[in-house]
């Protein structure tokens, strides 16, 4: 199978109607670019797939790049677009709904063909963990990043945790779940809190 690799996808595969897969190995800067690049697949009308790998480090790197720009207004706009791209990656709703909603279109039903739609049967009610995490954020003074309240919830012995925080009733009550669970939950809550109503996850 022929494979095309590029660091900049502009024009890549534009004359290839039979591209079956588009794989991103890091997060694009904005949804416009992502949408254009995934649009290279399936131009012949046959089934095709898009796969996106992303991580928190992608956002950090892209934010630093944007912050180094000389045009403050442009930087601010691109930062907003980056947050929307992050929202797309973390959102718990149908991917196609999110994409079309970003461009001002409304999908009346889920696409049934993305990872979020496939995962509906595996959804977990995280109401209680979400309450625990929010409580930890509030009771530690709302002055830390996400990592600190997670350390408290997981009962960390780190010197960063004060004696007062160790005495909290919620200290250690989340140690049965891995750090990544709490981080993913926190990031998702942040996305939902800042997303327009139509982009929030559907109440499955």
What share of the residues does DSSP label as strand, in percent? Answer: under 5%
User: Which outline best applies?
Assistant: globular
Q: How widely separated are the two ends? A: 39 Å
The number of strands is 2
Instruction: Please tally the helical runs, counting DSSP H or I stretches of 4 or more residues.
Output: 9
Helix share, percent? 40-55%
Uncertain parts: 197-204
* Largest sheet, strands/sense/barrel: 2 strands, parallel
Widest sheet: strand order? Answer: 1-2
Q: Which structural class matches the secondary elements?
A: mainly alpha
Query: What is the chain-wise order of helices and strands?
Result: EHEHHHHHHHH
C-alpha-based Rg, rounded? 20 Å
Nearest-integer average pLDDT: 86
What is the fold's blueprint, element by element?
Elements lengths: L20 E4 L6 H8 L10 E4 L3 H12 L4 H19 L4 H8 L12 H4 L8 H13 L7 H7 L9 H4 L12 H16 L10
Parallel strand pairs: 1-2
Helix pairs in contact: 2-3, 6-7
Give the tags:
204 residues; mainly alpha; Arc Repressor Mutant, subunit A; two-stranded parallel ribbon; 9 helices; 45% helix; 4% strand; globular
Notes on the protein architecture:
There is one protein chain. The protein is mainly alpha-helical and 204 residues long. The protein is built from nine helices and two strands; from the N terminus they run E-H-E-H-H-H-H-H-H-H-H. Among the domains are: 21-90, no CATH class; 127-187, Orthogonal Bundle (Arc Repressor Mutant, subunit A), CATH 1.10.10. The protein has a two-stranded parallel sheet with strand order 1-2. Helix 1 links the parallel strand 1 and strand 2 (49-52). The chain is globular and about 65 Å long.
């Amino acid at each position: 199978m022929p494979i095309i690799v590029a660091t900049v996808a502009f024009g890549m595969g534009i004359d290839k109607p039979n591209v079956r897969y588009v794989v991103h190995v890091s997060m694009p800067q904005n949804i416009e670019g992502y949408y254009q690049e995934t649009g290279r697949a399936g131009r012949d009308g046959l089934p095709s797939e898009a796969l996106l790998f992303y991580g928190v480090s992608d956002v950090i790197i892209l934010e630093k790049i944007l912050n180094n720009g000389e045009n403050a207004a442009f930087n601010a706009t691109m930062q907003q677009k980056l947050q929307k791209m992050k929202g797309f990656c973390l959102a718990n709703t149908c991917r196609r709904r999110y994409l079309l909603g970003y461009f001002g279109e409304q999908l009346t039903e889920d696409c049934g063909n993305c990872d979020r739609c496939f995962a509906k049967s595996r959804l977990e009610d995280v109401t209680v963990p979400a309450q625990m995490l929010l409580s930890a954020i509030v009771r530690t003074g709302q002055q830390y990043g996400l990592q600190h309240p997670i350390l408290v919830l997981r009962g960390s012995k780190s010197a960063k945790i004060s004696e007062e925080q160790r005495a909290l009733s919620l200290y250690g009550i989340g140690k049965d779940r891995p750090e990544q669970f709490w981080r993913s939950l926190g990031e998702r809550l942040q996305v939902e809190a800042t997303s327009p109503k139509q982009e929030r996850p559907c109440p499955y």
